[in-house]
Amino acid sequence: MAWDTTQATGPAGDEIHVRARLWQFGQHSRGELAAPVGGASFNPTVNGDKPNQIRNITTTVSANLSLIDGKTANMGGEFDVAVGAKGVAPVHQDPRIAALHARGLTGEGVVFGQVEPGSPYLVHGAFDNWQSSDPSVLRAAYDGAAPAAGASSGHATRVASIMIGYDPLGIHVDHESRFEAAGNRINNGFGFTGVAPKGKLLTNGSSGVAEITSVATGNVGGAPVKVMNMSAGVPGSSANGQSQSERAIDHFVEANGIIFTKSAGNAGRVSAITTPGGAYNAIVVGNLEYGADVSYPTDFDPANAALSGSSSRGPTADGRSKPDITALGTGNYSAFTMENEYRVPRAGGGFNYISQIDPAYMESGNRGLYSTRSRQSGSEAGVAVEGTSFAAPTVAGVAGLMVQQGTISHAGADRTEAHNPLSIKSVLMTTADKRPYGGDTYRWSKGVDGAGDDANTRIPLSFRWGAGMLNPVGAVDLIATSPQEHNDHVTSSGWDYNAMLTSTSHDTIGGGVDVGLGHLYDVRFDAPMVTTNFSFIATLNWFNHVGVADGAGNYAAGTLVNLDLTAYLWDGTNAPIEIARSDSTIDNVEHIWLRNGLTIPGDANGGMSFTSLLLRVSGAGWRGAAVAEEYALSWKTYLIPTPSGVSVLSVVGLVAIRRRR
Questions:
Q1: 412 exposed, middle or buried (CB, 10 Å; 0-12, 13-18, 19+)?
Q2: Alpha carbon distance 199, 597 (integer Å)
């Protein structure tokens, strides 16, 4: 066997612990599932040999290996065939995330948590520690017992790899573990990276209240969990924010500062968010498709996106706006496992779909394989990886990059506020793309599409899109700016984390304007603006307050203050003109979008000139006169009507403004 180490690549400056992966080309009898009625075990039967499948025989070496060439055999001495392995610098399939990686944002220092029924196969190459040769330094750990041999979940493995996976020796395969067709290969078929490849993971193979608690209070190597993801839910349930799991999530988001992402569900209809997706403080994520061939997304221009037909729509069972945002959940390049899927009848009708790694294919044979497609039991065609299960960890990974950016850009109290789950959620939603598809017509609209809900100020978000489509670069860039302060002039795009008292909060911008109680932000432009050439988005978030569990482990219902967000145009002299408001009485989010061509009362000809846009945060239903309500507010101004456009309004001193404390 020849070992060529002359072209080894890896993270610059890191000590690389390289695994030599040996590809095995040959035939393998693929196990197929005969689904037993009411059964919960595999009954593999031989379904014929599959030419050119790849299985892995691996060894570990302590040198940087780029190319291995020679012959080997499997552990049983069979398949004496040519093998090889090549190490590359992996590039993420989404060029926007790849651009963030190129800026050094990799999730380093961020610990992710995972809760769902089923444990990932952490021996998969996606979770190897490539940054250290010390085997005691873990990138991923089980919270509790590891799964029994052969009992790992392919679903959980994919989800975890989307968040933190990294494998310079990865191989791009199709749904039958054969080399992917040349035209479909990502990075020429070699290497894999998730969204936060230097993040760490604590994972639990269940998703009840006890497991949520254990992971939310857990750590890896002494570092606490910061971002949690749940790609699971109870179909057909009433997600209303009042289940014990939803209350537990709300509690830990506020009490422990956890950023919690949750898949919306895959029912494809209105009012179908799965429990615990009704958690007020969670970020609930819908599923996007990009491009005509959803199995192989390559163009991530928002104009090429569509909401998957299977993505669950809102509202929640109690009428609140969910999901909060949408992201790629179809064709996600992720850890591949040869899975079997079978149905188990569910009490009351219907089936639960259970998937496990094919016992005829051995877990070790999946090590280091990646795909945008998954095996569909009983089918030769395979299907695209699809589901809100894969959209949620995409958002979780970007949230981790935002946390890292907050660490880089800020210090002291500013850093704490940049890491707060309210700030992260608000910025994600404000920077989300609304996607125009021609002229001034947009697919984004509030509430139910076509129901005329845009004028309803009680509905803050779209029941399909949430606030829009994930914009990774926009979110990271906005959280990198300095937090600003109410009762003052602020830049055209920015964010603030603050707290407001009841009768004592009455801003007037130095006595220049009075629109009532509340906090005021004077978004000041460096030149007069007109209503026909700008677009503006703002998002207000605050907590649903759930206290600690009682002695029996149960959580009481939370307390929700009612905050409102109002926008005014102001010329600096005359009385401000109210142009928009978001005043839901049941949500803990308010969202305003002022699109291009805004019509102003009393401005029949259009083109009204103004120098300031005032944002007012006000509220009712306080928890007490002396109890300040914490909130995060973010806003963004565009010179053109496309939120994904290239021209964001700039003002003098964009990053020079600092909070007065």
A1: exposed
A2: 43
First vs last C-alpha separation in the chain: 66
Taking 70 as the pLDDT cut, the residues of the chain under it are: 1-87, 131-135, 340-365, 376-381, 436-442, 503, 529-533, 596-608, 639-661
d(CA 244, CA 279): 10
Q: CA–CA separation, 211 vs 228, rounded Å?
A: 12
Burial of 611 from C-beta contacts in 10 A (0-12 / 13-18 / 19+):
middle
User: What are the structural domains of the chain?
Assistant: 89-398 (3.40.50.200), 487-661 (2.60.120.680)
Pairing of strands 283-290, 259-263: parallel
Number of CB atoms found within 10 A of residue 91's CB: 17
HEC string for 588-650: CEEEEEECCCCCCCCCCCCCCEEEEEEEEEEEECCCCCCCCEEEEEEEEEECCCCCCCCCECC
Question: What per-residue confidence (pLDDT) applies to 51?
Answer: 53
| pTM of the shown model | 0.88
Give the model's pLDDT for residue 436.
56
What's the token pair of residue 245? 């799991």
Helix (H, G, I), strand (E, B) or coil at 69: strand
Task: List CB contacts of 8: < 8 A, sequence separation 6 or more.
Answer: 16, 18, 63, 64, 65, 66, 87
CB 524 within 8 A of CB 651: yes
CA nearest to 517, candidates 525, 507, 526: 507
Contact of 113 with 215, CB cutoff 8 Å: yes
Give the model's pLDDT for residue 160: 98
Q: Which two tokens stand for residue 659?
A: 């909070």
Say which DSSP state 376 is in. -
Q: What pLDDT does residue 116 have?
A: 94
- Cis before 276? omega within 30: yes
Cβ(489)–Cβ(501) below 8 Å: no
Q: Per residue in 486-511, pLDDT tens?
A: 999 999 999 999 999 876 789 998 88
Q: How many helices (H) and strands (E) does the chain have?
A: 8, 32
**One-character DSSP codes across 128-146:** --TT-S-TTS-SEEESSPP
Angle at CA of residue 281, ends 277 and 286, nearest 5°: 40
Reply yes or no: is the peptide bond before residue 315 cis, omega within 30 of 0: yes
Put the strands of the sheet holding 488-490 in their side by side order. Answer: 488-490, 519-530, 609-620, 562-570, 577-582
In this predicted structure, what is the pLDDT of residue 606?
53
- The Cβ of residue 52 has, within 10 Å, a number of other Cβ atoms equal to 13
DSSP one-letter code for 101: H
In angstroms, the CA 530 to CA 194 distance is 43
pLDDT at 496: 99
Q: Is 568 helix (H, G, I), strand (E, B) or coil?
A: strand
CA distances from 346 to 234, 276, 432 (A): 12, 19, 38
Q: Which residues of 246-261 are buried (b: 16+ CB within 10 A; e: fewer)?
A: bbbbbbbbbeebbbbb
Which residues have CB under 8 Å from 337's CB, separation 6+?
Answer: 121, 124, 152, 154, 157, 158, 357, 363, 366, 369
